[in-house]
Amino acid sequence: MSGVTKRSLSIRGHSTSISLEDGFFDELMRIARDRSLSFAALVAEIDERRDRRTNLSSALRLYVLDDLKSRRA
Asked: Which residues span the domain enclosing 16?
């Protein structure tokens, strides 16, 4: 199992960082590719929709989980 890697990116004109395990990052990259989005555009979309009580890294993990669950159904 991979450790957590901190990554920096810019969403909607401001810099931010996320901390994700490689597996979650890889799945987010796959989802972005499947949807013909840049990674930053996908993250911005998830950020816009997340409950503000949830930090962005957690929201990204939950998004991946929901995507994988929907593929299983």
From this structure: 4-72
